[in-house]
Design a protein that fits this description.
- The protein is of the alpha/beta class.
- It folds into 2 domains: 220 residues, Glycogen Phosphorylase B (Rossmann fold, 3-Layer(aba) Sandwich), CATH 3.40.50.2000; 144 residues, Glycogen Phosphorylase B (Rossmann fold).
- Helix content is 42%, strand content 17%.
- A 7-stranded parallel sheet has the order 3-2-1-4-5-6-7, with helices on both faces.
- Helix 5 packs across helix 6.
- The longest helix has 19 residues.
- The chain is globular, with a radius of gyration of 21 Å.
Length: 380
């Protein structure tokens, strides 16, 4: 099949999932014809993504706005700013139409991009089938237990999720563990999409005496620095989107985002500190590393991720960067979820089953003909 990816470019989670999905599809004769990434104005697509997709194209897309000092999600400002950019988003939809029609795909896969959902529902003139993939769709499942007292934010996040899945034939729900499907809502639970270099790497290694941290908001690095000033015997390697101006102590080392280097530290660390992004949690669980989850303030999705990760045995959650309780947890309480590796490793077969149902008949017939000819030759 010829496939087009539409990817939400905020953070690294959906971008990493797109890389993993491409690895699965390309190993099974499918081709990724075009990769279209929604980004905030002026934000470039990260290097780790363009290494895999050098011809990826970006378009302006709605984004979340955070307070630079408190790191809280500013909901009203997010809505106001994005409404003011509506003309730009209309241009983005025209751009998507042009690029997708030019690619003549058999399938569109949308990684939680809102404009991708709007395109599939309103602009998809050739009725190309769409599959939507995200962990956030788990929140649409009635069996999911939400944080208490969260009616407004729950419905707001679910509205956004429904927008990203407009026009989708099915929603593939990435989950830490198997979960009940909801056929009425076209919700199908699947394993997380983990990069092949992780799945095929030497699995569990002996832990070294350092923590690995990942923060996707530069201001959060200041909170980590503040704690480390009083606990500088703890060695921490922290990956950030923007390096701090000063290096405060040799035991606190900051790195630019680098997929292979991050993986190297992940395999060797004794624990992972992160905001509650789905992808980092999955990678830590695969290597049986305990995780401290610190959801961004006012970020309902991350609160849900944190609670669900604790349910799945990934680690603990709290509201600040006081790492002392986490260090105690590593030494005395952590027991890894040993079933996660098998669940994550089953992703390839499950994903192909869910996607190849949309393969056009002409491709299926050609493949059967090829296999038939091959079998005849072998008998001869």
């Amino acid at each position: 099949m010829k496939i087009v990816f539409i990817v939400q470019g905020e953070g690294r989670g959906h971008l990493t999932q797109a890389i993993s999905m491409a690895q699965i599809l390309e190993s099974n004769r499918h081709t990724i014809e075009n990769v279209l990434v929604g980004t905030n104005c002026g934000v470039s697509v990260p290097g780790f993504f363009t290494e895999k997709f050098p011809n990826a194209k970006s378009f302006m897309s709605p984004n979340l706005i955070f307070d630079k000092k408190s790191n809280k999600l500013r909901l009203r400002k997010t809505i106001r700013k994005n409404l003011a950019k509506s003309k730009h988003y209309i241009r983005s939809l025209r751009f998507l139409s042009y690029e997708i029609e030019k690619s003549e795909p058999d399938l569109i896969i949308n990684f939680y991009e809102g404009l991708g959902g709007i395109y599939s529902y309103f602009y998809n003139n050739h009725n190309v089938p769409t599959v939507a993939i995200a962990h956030q769709y788990l929140l649409l499942n009635k069996a999911f237990i939400h944080p208490a007292g969260s009616w407004f934010h729950q419905n707001l996040v679910n509205l956004n999720s429904k927008i990203t899945a407009l026009g989708a034939e099915k929603k593939l729900v990435l989950s830490f563990t198997p979960f009940s499907d909801n056929f009425q809502e076209q919700l199908f639970t699947v394993p997380p999409l983990i990069r092949q270099e992780i799945l095929t790497s030497n699995s569990i290694q002996e832990s070294e005496n350092f923590l690995l941290a990942y923060v996707n908001q530069p201001a959060l690095a200041n909170e980590l620095i503040e704690w480390h000033n009083n606990n500088n015997e703890t060695v921490i390697h922290c990956f950030v989107t923007k390096l701090p101006k000063q290096v405060t102590h040799p035991n606190l080392v900051f790195h630019n985002l680098n997929a292979s280097l991050f993986l190297s530290y992940m395999k060797r660390c004794k624990g992972v500190v992160s905001t509650a992004g789905f992808e980092t949690i999955c990678e830590a669980m695969f290597f049986e590393k305990p995780v401290l989850l610190i959801p961004l303030k006012n970020h309902y999705e991350q609160r849900c991720n944190a609670l669900d990760a604790v349910r799945a045995g990934a680690g603990i959650t709290q509201e600040n960067f006081n790492l002392t309780p986490f260090l105690n947890f590593i030494d005395s309480e952590f027991t890894p979820n040993t079933t996660f590796v098998n669940w994550a490793s089953s992703a390839k077969g499950i994903m192909l089953n869910e996607v190849e149902i949309f393969e056009p008949k002409r491709h299926v017939m050609a493949e059967k003909s090829r296999q038939s000819s091959s079998q005849k030759l072998s008998f001869e």
